[in-house]
Amino acid sequence: MTKTALVTGAAAGIGRACAKQLAKDGMAIGVLDLLIDQAQKTADEINAEGGKAIALQADISNRAQVIAAVQTLRDAFGPITVLVNNAGITNTTPFKDITDELWDKVLTVNLKGTFIVTQVVLPDMEAAKWGRIVNMSSSSAQTGAAGMAPYSSSKGAIITLTRTLAEELGPLGITVNNIPPGIIMNTIMSEANRENFPIPIETVREMMPVRRTGVPEDIASACSWLCSEGASYVTGQTIGVNGGRLRTT
Fold first, then answer.
1. d(Cα 241, Cα 94) in Å, to the nearest integer?
2. For residue 247, is it within any domain?
3. pLDDT the model gives residue 187
């Protein structure tokens, strides 16, 4: 039976790469994003390549919109048993200049949005007694990031949420892991923040153990494995895909 996956923030970048890879793995894909035209383009690419996909529009921090989008996906392809929580926003602001409104906006989308989408999709996984959840955190949550306090804090919370859900949902046959991407180019965030890199990107590449920055497909490959049957004994883990920028024990 074909599995159905929901990928949030799938109009471009990492989300798009994950959606396309999971489609190649044989899953039907819900391509969810605020940018519906770009989400439709991703879905069209998947369908043109022989996969199955539908474009969905929702603000992940709006529960009513998420419920409606998830139901549209269920109606199209059946119960959702794979979820990739990729949608998020970033911001670069010195700590002393962060407003309450900015702090709330970033955490509402990145953390509350992940909570809402997961909670809405969860009943399908519970019924199937099988599920895969992959959350996108960030290497900035592991190292800290100057000028990105709301973002790195929200992504640190995603790591903790991952561990908590792995503990709670494991007995139900559901695994929950997170990927903290390193420096990934060709994404909306990387292009928006390129001018804020403290040193030239060429210098960054030379400092990396693998001597290159990442691409969205690097993250998609790890996501594919975590969503597979082969990763059934892996849960609650932080799988760093960062070219060796951060090395953990």
1. 27
2. no
3. 59
